[in-house]
Amino acid sequence: MQASRSRAARIESVEEASADDDRLVSVAVAYDEPLGPTLERVEEAHAEAEYLDGRASEPLTEAFEAAARALRDVGETPSDGLAVYAGVLDGALETYVFEDPPGRVIEGGFEHGNAFATGPLERGGARDATVGLVVVERGGAALGRLDDDGVTTLETFDSGVPGKTRAGGQSADRFRRRREERKREFFASVGEEAGRVFDAPDAVALGGTHVTVEAFRDGDSLPDRLASRVAGTYAVEHAGERGLDELAARARGDVTDVHVEAREALDTFFERLPDGEVAYGRETVDDALTYGAVERLLVAETVGASARAAYAERVDDEGGDLVVIPTDVAGGERFTEGFDGVGALLRFPVEA
What we know:
Helix content: 40-55%
Number of helices: 10
Strand order of the largest sheet: 7-6-5-8-9
Number of domains: 3
InterPro entries: eFR1_2_sf, eRF1_1_sf, eRF1_2, eRF1_3, Peptide_chain-rel_eRF1/aRF1, Ribosomal_eL30-like_sf
Largest sheet: 5 strands, mixed
Shape: flat
Protein name: Eukaryotic peptide chain release factor subunit 1
Region (Disordered): 1-20
Radius of gyration: 25 Å
GO molecular function: translation release factor activity
Strand content: 15-25%
Domain eRF1: 131-250, 261-350
Number of strands: 13
């Protein structure tokens, strides 16, 4: 199993794999299909290969078995589909499992041959932006997902935070302290649950009354991997499913723009790369900033928040702008791993 390697490295290995005969198995499960029927097809192929007793090659039989085992381990179809590759390469059985394909898997398939079928790993078919929705109100919260299929409610729950009191004196002070403590606990539970139900959304939108939602955001309640993707906070009057619909309506344009902006910036970066019209790597980009040569600064979301803030201030002083690049946007992982997560579109070339 190759799960410990980066997705980009695993894709490269699959694309480059070849064999002299029929021993490489490729399995794809579309995002909107159950996993079970595909698993049955692979298990049947494995059983038939074993029954042939030597007429099917031993490496192919091993590959069928490995693919079936990988499908059983996954259990159910991930939100963007699944791709599994198994085969004997250079004398060793290798299995590559993509529960996070670079593009949504639209069509399932099962085949074997002397090369892997890499269609499900093509980046051109990347899905539309997926947005995590978080509505936080004094009385409750709701978590949902916005994608090209619309709004899906994932979780709703009550807060248990008591309402305000009109009592005075020390009793009121104790009540207020207890209320604040319960609110902090509630915020923490919302953030923890969001970390559980959200995998890797392209952006996160927060909704609620202004005071409550800003307190939630300022309280660092979300896990860092989600907090770094917050596109904004929005006024929402209701909790529950109605609140998620309100939040989606208000945030839809903004969060889509965030995703589109990152993709467009990366496309331009890679287009200009062969002509030397970009800078990349922290030292080179730092020099370009010093010379005032940066028109647009690209910074991966994996770069620390304080460093991103410093970059934003420097490029803003030059009249340029900063784009934060999610790792799972098309080209994002390549940019993060291959270019140190920092790059720039230049106004003029800078001598190295």
